[in-house]
Amino acid sequence: MSTSSPKLLSVSSEWNFELLEAFDRELGRIAKDFGLDTYPNQIEIITSEQMMDAYSSIGMPLNYNHWSFGKQFVETEQNYCRGRMGLAYEIVINSDPCIAYLMEENTLCMQALVIAHACYGHNSFFKGNYLFRTWTDASAIIDYLLFAKNYIRECEERHGVEEVEAILDSCHALMNYGVNRYKRPRPLTAAEERERQRSREAYMQQHLNELWNTIPKKEGHADAQQTRYPVEPEENILYFIEKNAPLLESWQRELIRIVRKLAQYFYPQKQTQVMNEGWACFWHHTLLHQLYDEGRVDDGFMMEFLHSHSSVVYQPPFDHPHFSGINPYTLGYHMMQDIRRICENPTDEDREWFPQLAGSDWQASLDYAMRNFKDESFIQQYLSPKLIRDLKLFNIHDDASLPILKVKAIHNETGYQRIRETLAGQYNLGNREPNIQVYNVNVRGDRSLTLRHYMHNKQPLGSSSKEVLKHLHRLWGFDVRLESILPDGTVTKRYECPPSAELLEVICP
Amino acid sequence: MSYIIDRRLNAKKKSTVNRQRFLRRYKQHIKEAVDQAINDRSITDLERGGKVSIPRKDISEPIFHHGPGGITDRVYPGNREFSEGDEFKRPEKGGGGGSGQGKASNQGEGEDEFTFNISQDEFLDFMFEDLELPNLIRKELKDATSFETRRAGFSSHGSPDKLHIVRSLKAAYARRIALSGNRRDDIRALRKEIWALEKEAVTDDTTERLQALRASLLELEKSVKKLPFIDDFDLRYQNLVRIPIPSSKAVMICVMDVSGSMTQSIKDMAKRFFILLYLFLQRNYKQIELVFVRHHTLAKEVDEQEFFYSRETGGTIVSGALSLTADIIKSRYSPSEWNIYVAQASDGDNWDGDSSLCGDLLREKLLPLVQYFAYVEITTGPHQNLWYEYEGIKDQFSEQFAMQQITQPGDIYPVFRKLFEKRTEVNS
């Protein structure tokens, strides 16, 4: 793109609305030239106080009321006021139009960076990536949140704040287990949701009546006792409770449903953090450099930009006091840049590792990668030996039964493959969160609910599990059991709520 | 296509509800922290907000997560010296690994404490929760002598300075419309007719009719114009009424013994007690005046500085202070206008023959005038004669009179609470 009269957009670091519009127009034009497909943008300028508000209601512009958001707010406020923490430069919401918050305190350069990062980077990722396309409905989320907020407020008026809060507490404890991992959910729309609500109540009651019918159907049909309910283990615990808990009232089921739907909405974000941030960083970097190449911004602007950019993608080494795991911005950004490098300037090593990528059109290849992967598969597919060397990645094997740690792989020829697989595994949600599923309900007996924790690498459950079980017990209304089992089927630990003393001990050391 | 929206003026404080719910949920914890603060901190600090710490484990939201143990394989960046196959001892404190799950402890100020600030108002709310001023209601119903003028709509009579122009013009306009309604309809009809006729071909017949029509139109318009633009009848005045309001003024009279037996530490305790009472009254009354009366053998009204810090010696005669208090009330604070609170602090010492005199003074002169009389005895020793004298009064005037003993600074707040606890709890 050649501009006939290259002209600086601004030399000041103060922003105003005309300048924001100008930057957005220019960045939008460049993004389009690069083939980024985005939702329309809704850029909102807010104060730091409003940013804290947004922050503490899980980033959404509106949300139902709950004490835990208040706790989050109090903590954020405290940290911010003490200067212990800067606020995020931006919050962007996967909605159509895509809402991005810009803080008024930011300089013009930061605003431009945020527009490039959020309004074109994240936005195009939300629109393009297969997880977001399948699992979330960008056009409906705001309406749905409004519906949820109003519904919960009505429930509070009718049943009391405490009652509602108790159910929400329990749902939040199980929120990570309120998603369908493999089935595509029905898209949510607030209007249908309201309509369906009533018919669902009636249907549900009928279904429950059948399940909990105590009138014996056939005398002497002992086999029925042997089959489990559900026949296949159910991974979506909240869904199972919503549909099957014997004692819940219909509004309580509705609350479970709301929390479940929100969990489902956030599910793709949890699985694409590296890619999403990497993609956004790659594009703010590319777009702003293009702006510079066209002569629309000056050196001072670029210096400020590069300073922010490099602190965002800084990765402290493992022994650094600030180290807190791998920075998803760093990993993602470098992987995206690496893909472009492999396409444009492949080395022999790249040709061997990425034959299909080397020398291909970088825009098409990058677009393909963005659309069709999540963190786990993306790393599995694209982490190159060069990047492993650049970041000096190494793999530690930690077996709790041994007093020593073992370095299993480092950045060398023999280690690349293992590091790549381990790192990919690290981003597998299935490994990160304990795999707990609904195993059985004693339908004809004491109505107790049994969950099974399928142990991965012998990792036990954390200390708060008993507390979670109490919440589960509140929702289910009858005894709840949780068994940790090894792949060979032996049960290593049982939890119960309410606890019965003899079952609490460890069965198998 | 992008839209840029300025939301800076939108509602802030969206999190207020959530914050309040959080505070309510952890009320017990916050109350403990507040009580702790009151005992620990110097009393002047109470006028600020407070820092509240809650053990993190008490407010964490439980989820299922992996605990320590089992086999984990993790990738770290920034390798320097390791090569494949290296083995080393597991670092003591996680050494850059694990999921970063903090260990919970219930004491000590560590990272495990969830700490946040509450504002002064919230602080005092927690501090004075469950407390109430005795006899407040009685005062509000009876003796209302001050009035407030409030707006009460509009009236058609009033003095010119209360004239409400917009309302008056509105009324005038309405009157004009109402009175000219029919004629306006006729005018409209006539105009239409004229307009239609004007379009037709000009004949003698039409010209004649036009003329007739125009004449009647003119007539009508004239009569409409005759309606006065504004009439006496339209005028509207702001209506103000006088509403009696309960007195929002209070006077707090601090009476303290400054005889030789009152050490500085005893006076400090008394001061804390007085300040607590002051803060508490401040939440109930708009305006509070303070009167300080100190006494040894002689009673004297002094300013705050002198009250708390000058030191005198000598014996103790309490009755002088009480009669001075009664005089002050009589001359400056009429009970019909003022809510009167008296707080007396002493180490309990009194000249033997004086106590019965004090009792009489209280019964006859003071208690009928005051809202509440609180007596604190700051002593570690056995009760003295004043205490026993007052005990008799307490039985007689249990509504208005209260007494408690303070032995150490930690008692001040509990004692204060006891004095002002909701009445039902005291009786039970």
From TrEMBL, chain A:
Pfam families cross-referenced by the UniProt entry: SpoVR, SpoVR_C
InterPro entries reported for this sequence: Spore_V_R, SpoVR-like_C, SpoVR_N, Ycgb-like
Domain of life: Bacteria
Location of the SpoVR-like C-terminal domain: 434-485
Domain SpoVR protein-like N-terminal: 14-431
PANTHER family reported for this sequence: STAGE V SPORULATION PROTEIN R
NCBIfam families, per the entry: PRK11767.1
Protein name stated in the entry: SpoVR family protein
TrEMBL record, chain B:
Family designation: Belongs to the UPF0229 family.
Segments of skewed composition (Basic and acidic residues): 81-93
Pfam families: DUF444
Organism: Nitrincola tibetensis
Start and end residues of each stretch annotated as Disordered: 59-111
Stated name of the protein: UPF0229 protein DN062_10440
